[in-house]
């Protein structure tokens, strides 16, 4: 019998075992297979992206200055299952541009050139703004053209991404989202005020200033009209990678925290709930990520997220998410006026999701226990169990203590 937290007991029975050698390393086949698969997939993705970029640089005029930005969960080490889905932004630098918001929340913009000739002039609309749909169509055509010669690579539809399905022999099928982005190297729009500023009390003002020097990206997005949506994926990646109030958080010389693991669990829970209820399809990983970023700004110390406190920290993060859902308000971390639960999310589905999460939380997460639902479910519960067990060792002798941390370290590294 173990407790997740909040005094609710839950007994779990599992069929999967994870084996460790005497030095605490994984010895079962799952580990070896997973790592090999991971590096194989990553290398296929690298080759494909390189091929596309070479084509853009050599054979096109408007995309010849393209850079790549690896975003999304794979590159943030936040993936919750097989390395089968990758996100890469191919960005085109733009200079001497006038970025004008439209609407009153600051998430969508139009982009106009100021003066002179530009390589993107051919995408100009009558009002002198760059047509997002025109540029995306051309980008998609170029991607299609150059992947034609790659065996097992297919182009699927998708917006704003061009999604490639890579079906190599002997590897898992990979979905690669190539997102077109404009890279803007000027100061952030005023709508971002009060957004990232919140990290002052978590990561410090120096880190905030460094991030704000980085510029930002715009990705094509249809929003009732042709538009560009602002993106800070590079900043998300940077602050999630260096997420400690102490520089050494989660480094070999520092203490281990559970921030990223809490996010993985939340994404996993959301995924299972979505699979159960198609009406929840509008909720996505970005809601989970944003909830974590806000949570990091309210519980700012590494000691608030101790690895051994995974259970309570996860519970607290769920309560945060429920709060956002009940209020129908989850501000975009970078643009406070942009409510991610606004347009497209009706109140009813927000309330329903909040209720379902509360139910799961109060009943010891029955959804994690359903057999054969998802390999990860079993693993998740195992990990929670192990960590709770490890907590029980906390009062033990020194050797047991180091075993405990070693064990948590390995589990958190692995998943
Ligand atoms: N601004 C903004 N960025 C988004 C939104 N959705 C996704 N992104 C960005 O695009 C990246 C990739 O999106 P996803 O593939 O949906 O999410 P992910 O973080 O990779 O998570 P999974 O793929 O579900 O594991 C995210 O990490 C975000 O940086 C959104 O609604 N608004
Ligand atoms: Mg992704
Ligand atoms: Zn950490």
Q: TL;DR of this structure?
A:
The protein has helices at residues 29-59, 72-75, 132-147, 205-212, 233-241, 259-276, 285-298, 310-327, 347-362, 366-369, 375-393, 398-414, and strands at residues 2-3, 9-10, 67-71, 85-94, 97-101, 108-113, 153-156, 161-166, 174-184, 216-222, 226-231.
Structural account:
- This protein is of the alpha+beta class and 415 residues long.
- It is built from twelve helices and eleven strands.
- The strands form two sheets. Strands 3, 4, 5, 6, 7, 8, 9, 10 and 11 form a nine-stranded mixed sheet that branches. Strands 1-2 form a two-stranded antiparallel sheet.
- Helix 6 packs antiparallel against helix 7, helix 6 crosses helix 8 and helix 7 packs across helix 8.
- The longest helix is centred in the N-terminal third of the chain and has 31 residues.
- The N terminus and C terminus are likely disordered.
- The structure holds guanosine-5'-triphosphate, magnesium ion and zinc ion.
- The site of guanosine-5'-triphosphate (GTP) has 13 residues, from helix 2, strand 4, helix 5 and helix 7.
- InterPro entries: Mab-21-like_nuc_Trfase, Mab-21_HhH/H2TH-like, MAB21L/cGLR.
The shape, in one word, is globular
| Major sheet characteristics | 9 strands, mixed
Mean pLDDT across residues: 83
CATH architecture title of the largest domain: 2-Layer Sandwich
Secondary-structure element string: EEHEHEEEHEEEHEEHHHHHHHH
Domain module count? 2
């Amino acid at each position: 019998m173990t407790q997740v937290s909040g005094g609710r007991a839950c007994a779990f029975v599992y069929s999967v075992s994870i084996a460790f050698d005497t030095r605490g390393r994984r010895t079962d086949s799952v580990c070896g297979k997973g790592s090999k698969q991971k590096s194989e997939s990553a290398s296929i993705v690298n080759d494909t992206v390189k091929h596309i970029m070479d084509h853009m640089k050599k054979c096109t005029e408007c995309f010849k200055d393209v850079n790549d930005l690896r975003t999304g969960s794979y590159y943030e080490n936040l993936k919750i299952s097989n390395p089968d889905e990758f996100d890469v932004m191919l960005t085109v630098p733009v200079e001497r541009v006038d970025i004008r918001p439209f609407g009153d929340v600051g998430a969508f913009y139009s982009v106009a050139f100021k003066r002179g000739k530009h390589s993107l002039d051919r995408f100009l609309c009558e009002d002198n703004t760059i047509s997002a749909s025109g540029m995306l169509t051309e980008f998609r055509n170029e991607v299609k053209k150059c992947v034609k010669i790659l065996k097992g690579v297919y182009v699927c539809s998708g917006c704003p991404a061009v999604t490639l399905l890579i079906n190599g022999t002997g590897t898992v099928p990979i979905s690669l989202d190539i997102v077109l982005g404009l890279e803007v190297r000027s100061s952030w729009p005023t709508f971002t005020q009060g957004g990232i500023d919140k990290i002052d009390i978590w990561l410090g003002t120096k880190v905030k200033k460094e991030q704000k020097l980085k510029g930002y990206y715009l990705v094509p997005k249809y929003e009732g009209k042709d538009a560009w949506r602002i993106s800070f994926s590079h900043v998300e990646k940077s602050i999630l990678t260096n997420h400690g109030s102490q520089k050494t958080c989660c480094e070999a010389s520092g203490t281990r925290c559970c921030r990223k693991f809490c996010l993985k669990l939340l994404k996993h829970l959301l995924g299972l709930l979505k699979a159960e209820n198609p009406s929840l399809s509008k909720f996505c990983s970005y809601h989970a990520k944003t909830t974590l970023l806000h949570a990091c700004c309210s519980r700012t110390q590494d000691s608030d997220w101790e690895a051994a406190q995974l259970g309570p920290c996860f519970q607290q993060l769920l309560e945060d998410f429920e709060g956002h859902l009940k209020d129908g308000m989850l501000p975009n971390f970078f643009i406070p006026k942009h409510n991610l639960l606004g347009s497209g999310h009706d109140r009813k589905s927000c309330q329903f999701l909040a209720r379902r999460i509360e139910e799961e939380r109060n009943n010891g997460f029955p959804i994690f226990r359903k057999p054969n639902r998802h390999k990860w479910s079993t693993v998740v519960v195992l990990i929670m169990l192990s960590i709770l067990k490890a907590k029980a060792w906390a009062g033990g002798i020194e050797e047991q203590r180091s075993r405990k941390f070693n064990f948590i370290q390995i589990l958190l590294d692995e998943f």
